[in-house]
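Entry for the shared binder. Reason: the reviewer on the internal report wants the predicted structure included alongside the sequence.
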Amino acid sequence: MTIPLNIPITPVRRKPFDGRALSEVTAELTNEVRELYTADEVPWVIGYSGGKDSTAVLQLVWSALKELPAEQRTKPVHVISTDTLVENPVVAAWVTTSLETMAKAAAEQNLPIEPHRLTPEIKDTFWVNLIGRGYPAPRPKFRWCTERLKIKPSNSFIRNVVAAHGEAIMVLGIRKAESQARARAMEKHEKRRVRDRLSPNANLPNSLVYSPVEDWTNDDVWEFLMQVPNPWGYNNHDLLTMYQGASADGECPLVVDSTTPSCGSSRFGCWTCTLVEQDKSMSAMIQNDDEKEWMLPLLDLRDKLDSPFGFIEDANDPDLPPGKKVPYPRPDKPARDFRRMNGKVMLFNDGAIHGPYLQKFREAWLRDLLSAQTWIRTNENTPEHVRNIELITLDELHEIRRIWVFDKHEVEDSLPQIYREATDEEFPGGPLDEQLVMGADEMEILKELCEGDELHYNMVRELLSVERKYRTMTRRAGLFKALEEAVQKGYYEDHADAVDFAQRRQKLRDDFEKNLTLDEEITLDAPA
């Protein structure tokens, strides 16, 4: 038999719920939810992001609890939503309003559902770490943001619930159809289930995971959301509209047959995220809706964080051939100190591993961020509901100022001036004159005396700051050690000298270890 070639093959996708009636599927799941809820006294914690999956799960639980007699609705159901403070502003506003509506509806319907908006600690926020401490923009191999912004706040809340009740059940909108990695992880935990539908949580002891929509597809989720009314009074059609706006082509159709494309690829997250090549959802929102053009400064700033240089020519950079422009493997490399956070020079492939952002770049990020916030607030085309947008909080600004002045010894105290220039307002923080070794004018004179030698200037500035700090102490123990560390940081003439010194030191260490006798090795290793 001859098989004809070049015939287009139409992908076959299953019908929602494998052709089963929606009412049958929801009745089966709500019965399951009620059985699990009434089986013990373990409190529930539902993860809610405001997206389609978590909304579907919360609707199922809400509807199931409504059908229970009041005397059986005894244990709390905590709904937690983690706001990273750099969420897509449209989504953040949606979630905040949803939580407020949810709390009111739960009280009116006499349901034990308690919404909670969680935020990271000030020391863990995105801007405090990037602008304050100088952490480089997150990358797949240095993904410092997820743990601090999302995992720690939710885990802390869950641990408190476990501490109070001994155990907790987490109800999540995770689905196998999201990705192959998610499917493998969920199937792995299924094998260790302690009872039907409850899997162990690999990261939190004494907590179990219940995922009621784990076998649903994107089409199943939208079919449910569009046909089952939202029980706390929110409008799921507005949620669909938000997903439509975040799709490049503006399309997000309901599934009417097996050839209709699904609306599952719209992903929302932090507008500052540099773990993806492009913020497609924000770009699509701006493209599809003229009213969202106020988000353009955010998109520009995000792209600048991701690739602040692209191609660069810098005569002072020893890694760059003279007079040439070349792309860097990490385009932010010239913006970063060649020393690590602790001042040490570490080598990789005979080159220095770059550390935190330099002062002038951290100041530039802050100025750009505050300027974007000011532009959005004052632009006549900005919608009324975002005119008071806060891209960075005052608490974060106070912490950044503290880190710059007291941890990094940047005693110029430049933050108030940057704030004033970018916002045309005075910074709402007291002066630090009594705590500074010198004022900004004196530091400018010092910089002139150092004749452009940044390493020399930074070292002298830190020495003065350390002496000022210890002068106010009753006991000055540790002063000489702190002074020595400051000198060691600025010991080098430049980047090349630092790399050369580290290479020679490494060679001496290798030669020493190579020439050790067996007895010497045993003697040297014994104390460790």
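Summary line for the report: Residues 7-11, 249-266, 308-329, 521-528 have pLDDT under 50 and may be disordered.
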